[in-house]
Amino acid sequence: MDRRAGTTAAVKTKIGPVILLGAPGAGKGTQAKLIMQRYGIPQISTGDILRDNVARGTELGKKAKAFMDKGELVPDQLVCDMVADRLRQPDCAQGFILDGFPRTVAQAEWLDGLLKDEFFEKRCAVPPVVVNFQVGYNQLLRRLTGRRTCPTCGRIYNVYSQPPRVADTCDVDGSKLVTRKDDSEEVIAERLKAYERQTLPLIDYYRRRARLREVNGDQVPDKVTAEAFRAIEIEAVAGRPSPVPKSRA
Ligand code: AP5
User: Fold this and answer.
1) What is the CA(13)–ligand 1 centre distance, in A?
2) Which of 8, 34, 51, 162 has its Cβ near the most Cβ atoms within 10 Å?
3) 101 in a domain, yes or no?
4) How many independent structural domains does the chain possess?
5) Span from the CA of 147 to the centroid of ligand 1 (angstroms)
6) Which domain holds residue 117?
7) CA angle 244, 40, 159 (to 5 degrees)
8) 4 lies in a domain?
9) Active-site residue, from 147, 148, 155, 213
């Protein structure tokens, strides 16, 4: 086993909850998939779960749709209930990646309570690592307007920076790529306003709790990934307790 692989195996057991912060288009979804592959913990994208509910026409989807179409945040209670259901699934017992949650101070406070009551004492004893991807405004606009997604496998492309080999076609499964409905210029502007007003205060929230790790998201994806892995692993080896053994879960 090479040294790098050995190190990764050793820290892997110490990776608990990972929270990805960043503006719309900062690269949270792109990086979450790579973090998931490396550490074997599930990606929980609140945006993806909400879009799936909208597509299936569930009660939650019907309530969320009007907010999402306008680029506004879905009310806290709806999203928190949805996240609680997901985090109680067995695959989240040792760790998970929250992509797009929390997004308000109320959501962050609610999450702290849930982790304390349901995780630290019973399942995963590791406090969350919060990674904030910093990207400039113009770059965000370019990324969001250029984004295309595969409706089958969820792979994310960008017509400017990460185009598919054949235009509008997924490299993995040949599906026709789609543009997200909220990636229109008008809705993007509202999403960025909602981010500044409601989500930006979370940077201070987590900084004050000494949980925040800043990552320069304005670099080529591989470099962003390397910085994110480093940030997560530094936290993991900084004397954190091991996850609670399965027999105590
Ligand atoms: P959500 O789906 O979470 O959208 P978002 O936060 O706006 O984030 P995005 O998915 O747009 O961007 P991303 O950071 O994941 O970037 P990506 O990796 O795709 O939320 C949608 C809606 O759902 C919200 O508006 C709200 O209504 C609702 N919602 C969700 N969560 C909620 C919550 N907690 N509370 C209330 N409401 C909630 O990358 C973007 C593009 O850039 C891609 O094309 C990619 O290929 C490209 N790219 C990525 N990295 C790089 C790089 N390093 N260099 C160049 N290009 C790159």
Assistant:
1) 28
2) 51
3) yes
4) 1
5) 10
6) 12-238
7) 145
8) no
9) 147
Catalytic residue among 14, 28, 65, 143: 28
pLDDT, residue 8, reads 67
CATH number at residue 173: 3.40.50.300
pLDDT at 15: 87
CB distance 54 to 63 below 8 Å: no
* 248 Cα to the center of ligand 1, angstroms: 36
Which range among 2-6, 32-36, 104-108 shows the weakest confidence by mean pLDDT?
2-6
Q: What is the pLDDT of residues 86-134, one digit of tens each?
A: 999 999 988 999 999 999 999 999 999 999 888 776 666 678 999 999 9
> Is there a catalytic annotation at residue 103?
yes
Q: Are 241 and 123 in contact (CB under 8 A)?
A: no
Helix (H, G, I), strand (E, B) or coil at 16: coil
**Phi and psi at residue 219, in whole multiples of 5°?**
-135, 175
